[in-house]
Amino acid sequence: GGIFLVTNITSCGKQSGASPTGLNIQYNVLNLSPDLGPINLFINFTQVNAAGNPFIFAADHGYFYVPSIAIPFQFRSATVAATPILQLNRNDILQSGAKYTLFITGSLGDNSLSPIFTVDTDFAPKIGRGKLRFVNASPSATGGLDVYVNDTLAFGAVTYKNYSKYTELPVGNYELKITATGSANVLKNQPSVTIQDGRLYTLYAYGYTSRADSAAFNAAVITNR
Sign of torsion, CA 153 146 86 13? Predict the structure, then answer.
């Protein structure tokens, strides 16, 4: 007890069907740890995500609403007697109307679980353009990753647990390739990613380049706006 600092918080999660209010932000959780198992998010001892719908490995559940004053979060196992897994106490104030994503990466087995917290709002792109950024959540990519957009380097040497700024791209379809920094060997190819007018997107890499199972290196794109 006593680990939470926020009182009188009412969950307004999309998963629960509640409506957002002026005090709420939109929050997304991506469980990218292959051995973590399903987890639930608790704020002030109240489960935020809907019962029976935990955050599972590599699944994008989309944004849900929480009050903007909800700073300390605790994640608990959804299968092992609600065992506490990870706790975050952010010192900054989340802005009403903004969007945020928490990427949980690393391994539970070797105590290397680590959060990557991103702000998913930015200035609107110019007319006829969208924006794209890149998050490196791959624990084996400590030497950095490069991202090529239609064979042109767009994001270079993004190291593990770091991310790029948004960059503008004209509306259209793109081929995104991820390589280890300085290498020509393509680790992941996203052959048809559509950038729409006024939209913001995040490409993120996760998993291990040394594995060939479900925890192998992979990537996905989420729409932030």
Answer: positive
Contacts of 175 (CB under 8 A, 6+ apart): 149, 150, 151, 189, 190, 191, 192, 193
d(CA 165, CA 118) in angstroms, rounded, equals 10
3-state secondary structure of 15: helix
Q: Sort strands 200-206 and 24-31 into parallel, antiparallel or unpaired.
A: unpaired
16: helix, coil or strand?
A: helix
pLDDT the model gives residue 10: 30
The owner of tokens 């890499």 is 205
Q: How far apart are CA 187 and CA 179, in angstroms?
A: 5
CB 13 within 8 A of CB 66: yes
Residue position matching structure tokens 């109307």: 97
Question: Rounded to whole angstroms, how far apart are CA atoms 182 and 195?
Answer: 26
Give the global pTM: 0.88
CA-angle at 141, arms to 140 and 146, nearest 5° = 160
Report CA-CA distances (Å) from 184 to 164, 180, 181, 190, 208: 20, 8, 9, 16, 18
The parts of the chain modelled with pLDDT lower than 50 are 1-19
Of 159, 38, 165, the residue nearest 104 (C-alpha) = 38
Report d(CA 37, CA 77) in Å as an integer: 7
